[in-house]
């Protein structure tokens, strides 16, 4: 089996972030990649993790009852059926973007000797991004499955960005420093073979971009 930078095989946990009904055509409908495709990959990753003995943590976002999304007690706040019917090793409810803030996630990971987390779920640019960066600052290695997540479009005083633009840019940024970004099928293959996913650096990513611009 391949080894991580510390000379040991990674001890992974799969972090399933906020796969809730509001994202499935609700008040925060995921647009890219399409929800039906990404949630299928979330399910595939959960099944592969269970088969490989990788612990699964399910996260759920909650908001006040008056909130337009994730309101406590609402259908939109409930876990998507593909997630609720699958087994998990730990369950966390949160109120802020990062799955670490105000929760016992770090304590649970340390207690289970986890050194690598694989983040899936929603949204690429919000709770996933916050969780990934938070994890890196805590010393965890991070993997991110780009087809088991998704984004939606934004327009505000800073401008407009499509769901595809947001998803693409965030995944490129994550791969440059914060996480190994890969597809679900590639991750499942890593579980089976012990191969470690490719990681990159800010400098190398920038150099490739400069070379591409000069070509």
TrEMBL record:
It comes from the Bacteria. The keyword Hydrolase applies. Pfam families: Isochorismatase. Residues 13-184 form the Isochorismatase-like domain. PANTHER family: ISOCHORISMATASE-LIKE DOMAIN-CONTAINING PROTEIN, PEROXYUREIDOACRYLATE/UREIDOACRYLATE AMIDOHYDROLASE-RELATED. This is Cysteine hydrolase. Keywords: Hydrolase.
